[in-house]
Structure formats: structure tokens, C-alpha cells
Amino acid sequence: MSNISKEFGIDDALKQLDIQKENKGTSVGENFFASGEIIESYSPVDGALIGKVQATTKEDYEKVAETAHKSFKEWRTWPAPARGEVVRQFNDELRRLKAPLGKLVSYEMGKSYQEGLGEVQEMIDICDFAVGLSRQLHGLTMHSERPGHRMYEQWHPLGVVGIISAFNFPVAVWSWNTALAWVCGDACIWKGSEKTPLTSVACQKIAARVFKENKVPDGISSLITGDYKVGEYMTQDKRVPLISATGSIRMGRIVAQEVAKRLGKSLLELGGNNAIIVTPDADIKNTVIGGVFGAVGTCGQRCTSTRRIIIHDSIYDKVKNAIVDAYKQIKIGNPLDENNHVGPLIDKDAVKNYLHALEEVKKEGGTILVEGGVLEGEGYESGCYVKPAIAEAENHFDIVQHETFAPVLYIMKYSGEVDNAIELQNGVVQGLSSAIMTNNLREAEKFLSVEGSDCGIANVNIGTSGAEIGGAFGGEKDTGGGRESGSDAWKVYMRRQTNTINYTKDLPLAQGIKFDL
Ligand code: UN1
After folding, report:
1. Residues with Cβ < 8 Å from 433, sequence gap 6 or more?
2. What confidence tens digit (pLDDT) does each residue in 423-445 have?
3. pLDDT tens by residue, 262-280
4. Mean pLDDT (the chain, rounded)
């Protein structure tokens, strides 16, 4: 173990989370039994091997799916508030283990410790939300057109929910899904990212312990580990009625097709290409803070990261210079050290993609405003640390149209009315998050109107990232259309049943149809 691991208490965090040097990456409840290949988890922070995890084989998966299916049949009969009580206790454990789990997220994934803690906080928040929800899984009552009939709808648990999550939010996205799915009465099988397998094992252990204490049947929380092939076991499995997948558009397209082939449901939360519009009425200081955090937070590896800033020509130079100046203050380094703002990218492939984007934007005629590059030397031995870069670019550049999961920010100009900025902002295939910085009511309302942003998230005077769990999270167009976490996103984890009850002695038919025998 490196000095960083000692100095920042990683060993202690691993101990508190019961993570071993060698771990099984497949589990139903507390029973870990993976028998596949070994996945090594190296920290992008210092390049050290944190631990090993054994992947899931097809045979392992069969055991998981079968158990999950069987346990679901019992779990669905528990009253929803009783299921909520289990989630409440799980949340108590998250509160107790917030620091070690936040630390492991930071060390295994590379985001700053503050953001690691923030991610665990999102888990805590969604669990709070889910506990309340467990008493509010409401359906509607309708008035029947037939006399002496009652009509209403109710929501029943859906079954086994498959969750595929990405490395960038290795714990929160799982809990957005599971906290809701559990109170809804579903069993969950989770395939976390093979780039962050230890955080998955840590979460599964916490859930399994609490579930066991509450005599929740094994398999309500299950974990599988491995690459896309392991994901395919679930996407092709008819026993899994819903697949919730977070990741790239490319991955989402494959998942959607696999799941559609068997007429399953998919909830997709895919790539973003999020822009901030800065109008002449913007507060420049807030624009800079929101824009810079959006672009460099999590080293540009959020699906909500700010990729483009669209600035009115009348204030273009002023805002551009303020952002470029702010970049000079960014400290890059060990993300566990709270003096640093930006940690490493997840791995060397991500570094390659980052360098490729910088090359491409230059080739297409962009101007580099803040030079990028890979950092070398002391503290940067993992080879994953890069400098956040800014390029002046045009919206139609091919590279600008694509999401590069790295801190590369494209700055561009608009002139005239806010509609022109909205057209640029909407002029990409992705539709996750968007923002406008303005104190002008007309511009703000136009941006939020039917002619405004086409994204799932549209913010005024805050950045594109950092959504709260209370709202439904997700986006339109190639972002996939799914909605997770707050609002009524729970409905996707349940099946709706419409019930009509006749309490008369007659049998009148709907639509007034006569049929006498
Ligand atoms: C993601 O990057 O997949 O809104 C999720 C945000 C976070 C979640 C991001 N609350 O930035």
C-alpha cells in the first residue's frame, strides 16, 4: 500500500466496510460465491492495488436470479411500510459509515473526498425519501361509467429489477434504484462497474447485514460483477422485467435492444452534453463558480458535467476571461487531500479519450484557451491526472457533439436573442441537463418554456450538475428518456393494475353494449 493509503486512512476504511484483499463479487444476501475470473481494482489516485474481486459466471448468475425470483415472492407480501422500516435501518448504517464509504468511493473512483461524501449523502437522502414513500404508493380512484361499479388502480411490485451502474457514481445510482425498488417490493440484482468493484461489495455487505437482521429473504439485494457479458445475463433474462442502466449512449442502445427483444422495460440514463447559457443579465461570479464546478467537478466525469458554455457576444470576453482566470486556481492532485479540487480520471483509457478530444477540437479549428495535458512526477504516478482544459469551439464540431467523459470545456458565442442560444443548447443529440444564467425573467421563462430547453433537467442560475434526489432524474433524446430517484419515478418499479368491481345483481356492459342471452 502506498503512503496515501496509510496517510488518509484507507486501511481503516476498508476494515470498517469489511473489504478484504480478496473478495467474491457475487452475492445473494450475505452469501458470497463468485467463481469467475479475478478482477483487480487499482486506485487511480496512486495506482495501488486496493483489492481483488472475483467475477460472476453464468452458473453463478443462475443461482442469483433464481434466488432473487424466489425471495421476491415472499418480499412482495411484506407491507410496504415494513419494507420501508428495513430501508430506514439500512440508512442508519449509511449514516454511520458515511466517512469510510465516502473515502473508498474517493480512493477507488478518484473523485474528491467531499464529492465522495456527497455521493453517500445522496444515498442517505434517497433512503429518507423511500421510507416516506413506503406509506405513499398511491393509486387513483375513478368514477365508473356503469351504475353500481367501482373503479380504481393499484400498484403492485414489479419483480426482479436489474441495475447496471457506471463507475462515476459507484454507489449513489445503485441506491436511487434500490431504495425505491425495495420499498416497492422488488428484489434487486446489481451489476456495478468492473472499474469500481470494491465499492459495490461494500454496499452489498451493508445491505446484506441489515437485511439479515430483519429476516429479509436472501436475494432481495444481490450483486453480480464483471464486464458487459455479465450485464447480458440480465438484459436477456425474461425473469428480470426491468433493467435500469446508467452509462454511455452506445451501451444504452445495446441494452435497450436486448431488453426490447423480450418485451422487458428499460430505464435508461445515458450520456449528456450539458450546456450553460450565459445571457447579458447573468451574475458573472455565480456563472464562474457554477460553470467551473460543472466542468471540472468529478474530473468532468458526471453525466451532468458542463461540457459547453454558450455566452452572449456582448459579455463574451469578460465571461471567458473570468473562467480562464478561475482555471488557474484549480488544484489537481490526490482527491483525498481536501486542498485539491480535482482528482484523477478513472483510468488510462479515459486519459486517451481526453487527449483525443483535445486533438480533435484543434483539428476542427477550435482554439485552446486553457492548455490541457497529462500530469507527471510526484503525486501523479498513476498516470491518470490531467489538466482541465478549455477550448473555444463551434457547436457543430463533431467532437463537441460527442460526450467526452473528461474535463474538456467548450466555450462558444451567441448573438441576438436568447432563442439563438437555446437553439445551440438543443443542437446536440443528448438531452440530459441544461442551465441558463440570467436575472432577466423573460429569458429565464423562455428557456423553461415549451420553446426552451429540450432536456430532462433545466436550471436557472445554478449549474448543470448536482441535481437533488427529490426531483425525477434523467433526460430526453439519446440520453434515453428514463427517470430515476424522486418525484413519481417509483412508478417504473411497480406494475399498475386497474380494478373494476361490480356490486350490483346486473351485468351492464361498458360503452352501453347490449348482449342478452
Ligand atoms: C451521474 O453522473 O450519472 O446531478 C449522476 C448530479 C448528481 C448525479 C449525477 N446528483 O450531478
Report:
1. 272, 274, 303, 304, 455, 456, 457, 458, 459, 464, 465, 467, 475
2. 999 999 999 999 999 999 999 99
3. 999 999 999 999 999 999 9
4. 97
Are 234 and 164 in contact by the 8 Å Cβ rule? The answer is yes
299 neighbors 406 (Cβ within 8 angstroms): yes
From the candidates 108, 119, 194, 269, give the one annotated as an active-site residue.
269
Centroid of ligand 1 to alpha carbon of 298 (angstroms) = 10
Nearest ligand 1 atom to alpha carbon 305: 11
For cell 459509515, the residue is 97
201 contacts 25 by C-beta, under 8 angstroms: yes
Q: How far is ligand 1, taken at its centre, from the CA of residue 268, in Å?
A: 14
pLDDT above 90: percentage of residues in the chain? 98
Question: What does the pLDDT look like over 213-243, one tens digit per residue?
Answer: 999 999 999 999 999 999 999 999 999 999 9
Of ligand 1's listed atoms, the one at least distance from the Cα of 465 is: 11
Q: With left for phi above 0 and alpha for psi between -120 and 50, is residue 333 left, alpha or beta?
A: left
Any atom of ligand 1 within 6 Å of the Cβ of 168 = yes
3-state secondary structure of 153: strand
Cα-based angle 148, 152, 156 (whole degrees, multiple of 5): 145
Q: How far is the CA of 164 from the centre of ligand 1 (A)?
A: 15
pLDDT in tens, 87-104: 999 999 999 999 999 999
- Measure the CA–CA gap between 265 and 267, rounded to whole angstroms: 7
Q: Is 269 part of the annotated catalytic residue set?
A: yes
Q: How far apart are CA 106 and CA 196, in angstroms?
A: 10
CA of 58 to the centre of ligand 1 (A): 31
Domain segments of the chain as ranges: 3-270+480-496, 274-472
CATH 3.30.70.580 describes domain 274-472:
no
- Percent helix, strand, coil in the chain (nearest 5)? 40, 20, 40
Residues near 204 by Cβ (< 8 Å), separated by ≥ 6? 27, 190, 221, 222, 223
Distance CA 49, CA 106 (A): 14
Does residue 457 have a pLDDT over 80?
A: yes
Statement: residue 2 has pLDDT above 80: no
What cell numbers appear for 135 in the block? 406509506
Question: CB of 385 closer than 6 A to ligand 1?
Answer: no
Q: Does the predicted model carry a pTM greater than 0.90?
A: yes
| Whether the CB of 296 sits within 6 Å of ligand 1 | no
Q: For 125-162, how does the pLDDT look when each residue is reduced to its tens digit (9 = 90+)?
A: 999 999 999 999 999 999 999 999 999 999 999 999 99
CATH of domain 3-270+480-496: 3.40.605.10
